[in-house]
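Readers of this paper often ask what the protein records in our data store actually look like. Nothing more is needed to write down the fold, since each code stands for a local backbone conformation. Below, we set out a record of this kind in full and without editing:
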Amino acid sequence: MIHFVNKRSLFDDYPNNSQEIILGAGCFWGVERVFWQLDGVWVTYASYSGGRRPDPTYEQVCTGVTGHAETINVIYDNEIITTKEILKIFWECHDPTQGMKQGNDIGEQYRSVIYCTNNEQLELTNMTKKLYEKVLVDRGHTAITTEININQSSYPAEEYHQQYLAKNPDGYCGIKGTGCALPPL
């Protein structure tokens, strides 16, 4: 499968120094658009992660029986964009305090998640969560509900979900941040 925007293969031919992180922040269409536009991001693709059933379909995920979140896999060149920069953008692009929803999108599949692929990412994720949570609470928000884990299975979503908002520019995107910024790292 080829990335609709940058014409690269979604699943192979990654740069030698690339890393991968899996992010969920509501509907994967809008989240994917945020990240595919970043300098240093090699490819992004919509996926289902954090659930109980292998190879779920969109219809199964929507019913809630699989436990998966709508996620995106971000493959990036860590020499051009760092994991810290990826995490800063993640925290600021959505509201990580909403639990099982983002805006009008309600349900387990829309929960905020970060699935790291190595221990360094996990340490940075937990550090940035603490910093950002302090900012949010100081500004009257509740605590962060983002699920953080390592080495979770990820299953690519159907092709029609891949880079959906590039193919359908008038498509719905409910992604919206809190207006709070992560302090300098």
